[in-house]
Amino acid sequence: MADEDGGLRGKTTLQPPALTSCLLYTIPRKRAKNNGQDPSPDSISTQTTPWITAHGSKSTIAVSDDICVELVDLSDASEARNRPKKIIQTQNKVLAMAFSNCGEFVAVADDAGTLSLYRSNGTLVFGHRIVAANGSDKVVAVKFASSERKTSSQETQTLVVVTKLGVLLQLGNLRLVEVEQVLLDKPKGALNVILGTIGFKRTNVGGLKEDTTSCLLVRSSVEPPVYVHRFEAEETIILGNHAAFLSVWKTLEGDERTGIEKVSSCDSRQDPVEAMAFDANCNLLVILSKGILTWWNWRDMTEMVEADTCGIMSFAVIRDCGDEQSGSLIAVARSTESERRTLEIIFFPHPESDHAGAARVLSKVDPSEESEGHSCTDVALFASASDTGSSQALAACRTDEGVDILLLTSDDTLENEANQSFYSESSEASFDMDRVAIAEALVDVPVASTKNIVTPERCVVQVRRSKHVIVQMDDVPATTQLLIS
Question: What are the KNTC1 N-terminal domain coordinates in residue numbering (predicted)?
């Protein structure tokens, strides 16, 4: 890799922004109930460990311990540690959750097979059973379709659900504000009215491969990874680890039978997808597999380039950067030969550039420095937008004492150098100091790690625009059943 120490080559004296870390809070390690011994480590690739998404420029983290949801406001990171946390008890174990594209609604799937929709202030809109309770199938991913532009709560939403056995269900024409009004006007018969307006489409995409991750990315987001994105008025769903390494599906308007068809697939790799997200320019797919990042053309399932990095445990795409946005700024967690974990900000040129694959480390930190000396064994990263002109990411770091949530910040201090690039034609290197707010268009960037992270308490992290998010699952109303298993 070029310039491993993060220094810049060439005549320029410009320096990249320094990466700093701040401990926001610690999730204590849970002890076994009976004998006082530590429970066996959970794998990040199971449904008992964190999955993380980002939405907008304000951040709120929800940490779920099976049926308990803890909420932490990160809109002011300097006050996050001292700000009181909100605890909400739920009725059933949470399996997956996701914010709507507008950020005003939250979808929650539980182990009773119920899919519930809430306002982001915690108010329950409605719940509906979509999978048989206590059966062999369960929801493994749920995501709202993302969009290239900002949307309002008045607009139609689309929600995609994927199960372990491979049932993919799309709930379209979700007019959630109108749904709320129906519930107020006709509370007794509201559910039938609501279900009559929703467009249900389904197909089978193949079961989740054994011992692989099933997570949801939306526009940033998925896991097995499942990634839902809007392109040219078509909704495209990208799946990883469901019967194939990768598969692409699209919805069919007007087809009332299934409404979803397969576009392409790739099963040429034995190693599973560990995590994936769209590149910062949204044209290509970035895939983490076997500790290495590769860029793919998702439309025809061809691999474009492999980055000259290894040992990557987790990653989060932050934004475009460089001359004419010639590359992506990505936060990565890496494991060294000495088993040390480092958190790094890396510049990756886009595959079509002259420097494709040549990654450059701009800055790095040791997460154990913020963990009161406790050794960090595993890390899961996820992106966070900022209103302060700085690049930010959040990291969940496992230690012997629990899981530390760190805020990583890379300040862009040379705002007058916005037109500088990392790689000039004369091979000089400089840094793009554009102070544009990070990822304003980034709706969701879920990130999974392939390493073990003992989350004594299962984490669900949601990052969104508003300052407070409450996910409440109490008093889920009885509903009619639409079984997809």
Answer: 47-349
